[in-house]
UniProtKB/TrEMBL annotation, chain A:
This is DUF3823 domain-containing protein. It comes from the Bacteria. InterPro entries: DUF3823_C, DUF3823_N. It comes from Mucilaginibacter gossypii. Residues 29-122, 125-232 form the DUF3823 domain. Transmembrane segments: none annotated.
TrEMBL record, chain B:
Residues 100-217 form the SusD-like N-terminal domain. It comes from Mucilaginibacter gossypii. GO terms for cellular component: cell outer membrane. The keyword Nucleus does not apply. Pfam families: SusD-like_3, SusD_RagB. It is found in: Cell outer membrane. InterPro entries: SusD-like_N (IPR033985), SusD_RagB_dom (IPR012944), TPR-like_helical_dom_sf (IPR011990). Gene3D superfamilies: 1.25.40.390. Belongs to the SusD family. Keywords: Cell outer membrane, Membrane, Signal. This is Starch-binding associating with outer membrane. The lineage of its organism: Bacteria, Pseudomonadati, Bacteroidota, Sphingobacteriia, Sphingobacteriales. Residues 293-629 form the RagB/SusD domain. PROSITE patterns: PROKAR_LIPOPROTEIN (PS51257).
Length: 236, 631
């Protein structure tokens, strides 16, 4: 068969029209916010505290998963619509409302364009007034601990750690120095104010004259730690 | 005229041909499909169906699952460029180790139902087949429950009635304890239906059934007892977690099942003791297919279509049958130092004396002398013997002034003062980042096949994978007995296993030491047999052992033998040749604990890892399934 002009025309038409129908625009509405307690950000471990966003009304039910940033921020690009925001059971160093049926409470978000929704939670403890100083290569931290939940749900402090890292991701899995990090056992804490921990920074290759540090508080019976904000410290 | 004849003949043929009834013409039985009543009329056909079901038994690590299924948990180092992620990740996904193969469950249920309905088999044949089907089903439920916790317990084939309502097919999760109870009651029900036969290793026997029961009951018991330490790992409906009050009952059942095997009523099994050298004997236990110790195995046959590449993947580099294909699985120093000294004490590998000076060894193997015979039986040590050759493992020359001369490959020579240009690293490693040869100083010996040609890709190896063996049954008995407080009897079972490993001084278990000792014994006896993860999980110490903190050498060499000793990163033990002419130690070996440079991550086991995630697709299809805790 000879290829005629109108064959090419049909082919072109098909190719041009075929592109339209089955392609959607990428989602553009940005849902973002942070974990807060009375306006104060709650710092958590990188990639450790997950959240789930459900869009009800569809036949199959599966969550959009994400994890909070170390400073408690989160962000997702979504289509406009109604979503339910929740945090899976036993995750995070804070209490999340449980419903009587043993299910988790969820937060309904009506998304129309970008929106900021802060997630208000009640942490067991907060690390406050964390100050980091360096003498030579020794990093010293002083900080206070505030117990937030004091009723029947209160939990004890397991340990408080000082973590130091080369980058601003600072936690148990992301730190310099092998073995146990410097720490105070919960049982050894007599006063909740003016606690102190220090760490001798080992040699870093390639050399850099600064490190990042923060305090992590392990609550007894809770897996995730609550942290102080990350601080950059200049060392020699 | 002629034409008329031909035409009329054809017409006649057509007419008579068309006379067939539609049904006779269209209903031709297909020749490539055997219907179930035909298949279940002949024991040989049933056996071929059963063979497929046996072939689909799900293992955690298996010789045909790939070498990497043995390579995690800091017990070894993966020496392959594409697999360094195993030591670079900082933990496991919540979905790791999950399984949800209800197609297999359905096939097993159908097999049991069809065998039950078969009319042309004898009762003896039917009982045997049904018992085997039930054994495989219980075995798969065991695999499910130790990974996922309670799962929907489906014991008959489910059929959809096309009514548009699928609710009858949506079965909620059973309690974790109910699944274990099912496994135990199935085992009790079928153990009498199978003939006792010690030489039958690859099909179900009473001993295989009892070994499964003993292990399952032990798992349930320890989850009940130690689950109390991790209350977050439980669900209010009991789908995950077993009440502590059930522990004693399960331990009693585990002990009773183990004792039934030990007493010999299920066949005359015993510890393998054939060779005078205890290490060779231990290695040979995995190679000897007629061993009196193996109870249930996955069998392989060279030149018979079922082989595996374990030896090809893991053979020593310089003794490889297949050029560059070798050396992937390198046992870590963490595991090696866990093997005790012959006086029942733990000690790190002696690299330095009290004042911090290196200790010099004439032969590399002297370093490992006087240890548990299972060490050399499990691990191919530096200068170890395989296929009549010795491995060549050293990381460089160390001079009298402390300078180390090394290179990136055995073929790249370096100038050593006084020797000229010489080879300075072993042909078998270790060099950081040099794949296919050891990077820890050790090769694997367990399962490594010394048969000629076993390391070739084309031939492969046909070494068995042992799923249940007598030594584990003894350890199950020891653990259950100790948990029930019968320390003297428990010590007796434990010491049988230890004597076979050359540890002849009897060990006395007490309330204070039994837990660490049992954990330790299972780790060294059953290394690389797929137990580590599940043992750590059921004792609820996985989150302590793999706590995510990176390790220093000081960390590595302390607390050896403690159940909760941290083991987040695999270490190596690198030998160096000491070169200092005129010195008394010239030409001897020194060793250094070394963390291979690809090891950058540290294992962190989260509470959410105790039970693998159930996929969103499963929950979407069956909303009655409750989610795992922490997920």
């Amino acid at each position: 068969m000879k290829i005629k002009f109108h064959h090419i025309l049909i082919g072109l038409f098909l190719a041009a029209s075929g592109c339209k129908k089955d392609n959607y625009d990428a989602p553009t509405s940005r849902l973002s916010g942070r974990l807060v307690y009375k306006g104060e950000a709650i710092n958590v471990e990188y990639n450790a505290v997950p959240y789930q966003i459900y869009q009800p009304g569809f036949a199959t039910k599966s969550a959009i998963q994400g994890t909070f940033d170390p400073d408690g921020n989160y962000a997702q690009l979504l289509f406009d619509g109604t979503y339910k925001f929740t945090i899976p059971a036993n995750q995070g160093p804070f209490m999340w409302k449980e419903l009587p049926a043993g299910t988790r409470d969820s937060l309904t978000v009506n998304l129309k364009g970008s929106q900021t929704v802060d997630i208000e939670v009640t942490p067991y403890y907060l690390v406050q007034n964390a100050k980091f100083t360096a003498t030579g290569r020794k990093v010293t931290a002083t900080f206070d601990i505030q117990k937030i939940i004091t009723d029947a749900n209160a939990k004890n402090i397991d340990r408080v750690y000082l973590y130091v890292n080369k980058t601003q991701f600072v936690s148990g899995g992301y730190r310099i120095g092998d073995g146990d990090p410097p720490s105070i056992a919960g049982s050894a804490i007599t006063s909740m104010t003016n606690l102190s921990l220090s760490f001798d920074v080992p040699t870093i290759t390639p050399t850099q004259n600064y490190v990042f540090a923060r305090i992590g508080l392990k609550i007894a019976g809770v897996e995730d730690l609550v942290f102080s904000p990350v601080s950059k410290i200049t060392i020699q | 005229m002629k034409k008329t004849t031909i035409i009329s003949t054809f017409a006649l043929l057509l007419v008579t041909g068309a006379c067939k009834k539609d049904s006779a013409f269209l209903d031709v039985p297909p020749k490539q499909v055997v219907t179930s009543d035909v298949a279940f009329s002949d024991p040989n056909l049933v056996l071929s169906i059963l063979a497929d079901l046996y072939n689909r038994v799900y293992d955690f690590s298996g010789l045909d699952n790939g070498w990497a299924s043995f390579a995690d948990f800091s017990e070894s180092f993966p020496s392959e460029n594409g697999s360094y992620y195993i030591v670079q990740r900082t933990g496991w996904d919540f979905g790791s180790w999950g399984t949800w193969d209800y197609k297999y469950v359905r096939d097993l249920n159908l097999f049991i139902e069809r065998a039950t309905a078969a009319t042309k088999l004898t009762d003896a044949q039917k009982n045997q087949f049904i018992a085997e089907g039930r054994f495989l089903r219980a075995q798969y439920y065991f695999e499910l429950v130790k990974r996922m916790g309670g799962v929907p317990l489906i014991t008959k084939s489910l059929n959809y009635d096309f009514s548009g309502n699928v609710e009858a097919l949506q079965i909620p999760r059973a309690k974790e304890s109910e699944v274990y109870d099912f496994i135990i009651s199935e085992a009790e029900a079928i153990k009498g239906l199978l003939p006792v036969n010690v030489s039958e290793k690859s099909r179900a026997t009473p001993a295989a059934v009892l070994a499964m029961e003993s292990r399952a009951a032990l798992y349930a018991a320890s989850i009940a007892k130690y689950g109390a330490t991790t209350p977050q790992v439980s669900l209010p409906g009991g789908e995950v977690g077993i009440p502590a009050s059930a522990a004693t009952g399960y331990y009693t059942k585990a002990l009773a099942a183990a004792k039934e095997i030990i007493s010999g009523t299920a066949g005359n099994y015993s510890l393998y003791k054939q060779l005078p050298d205890l290490s060779d004997n231990f290695a040979n236990l995995f190679l000897d297919k007629s061993s009196s110790e193996s109870i249930w195995v996955e069998d392989f046959k060279a030149n018979g279509g079922k082989t595996h590449g374990f030896t090809t993947n893991d053979q020593p580099f310089s003794i490889s049958d297949e050029g560059l294909d070798a050396g992937r699985l390198n046992p870590s120093l963490n595991l090696v130092e866990a093997f005790e000294k012959l006086d029942n004490t733990y000690a790190p590998m002696a690299t330095k004396d009290g004042s911090g000076n290196p200790i010099y060894y004439t032969d590399q193997l002297d370093m490992f002398a006087g240890r548990d015979a299972r060490l050399a039986g499990t691990v191919l040590l530096p200068n170890g013997l395989f296929k009549g050759k010795r491995t060549e493992v050293y990381a460089g020359y160390q001079l009298g002034n402390g300078t180390v001369i090394s290179s990136s490959d055995a073929t790249i020579t370096q100038d050593v003062p006084g020797l000229g240009k010489v080879q300075v690293v072993g042909k078998d490693g270790p060099v950081n980042g040099a794949e296919f040869r050891t990077q820890t100083g050790f090769y694997i010996r367990k399962y490594l096949d010394p048969t000629v040609g076993s390391g070739r890709r084309g031939r492969g190896s046909d070494v068995n994978f042992i799923r249940y063996r007598y030594a584990e049954v003894l350890l199950n008995a020891a653990e259950a007995d100790a948990e029930l407080g019968n320390y003297a009897e428990a010590s007796g079972y434990l010491n049988q296993v230890r004597v076979r490993a050359g540890l002849t001084t009897p060990l006395v278990l007490t309330a204070a030491n039994y837990f660490d000792r049992i954990v330790h014994e299972r780790r060294v006896e059953l290394a690389f047999e797929g137990h580590t993860l599940f043992d750590m999980k059921r004792w609820r110490i996985a989150d302590a052992v793999w706590d995510g903190n990176s390790m220093s050498v000081a960390d590595l060499v302390t607390n050896i033998g403690k159940a909760t000793k941290r083991s987040t990163q695999p270490f190596g033990l690198w030998p160096y040749k000491y070169y200092n002419p005129g010195d008394v130690n010239n030409g001897k070996w020194i060793f250094k604990e070394t963390k291979p440079s690809p090891v950058t991550g540290s294992n962190r086991f989260l509470l959410g890892n105790y039970y693998s995630r159930i996929g969103d697709d499963v929950i979407a299809a069956n909303p009655k399934i409750v989610k795992q805790p922490n997920q």
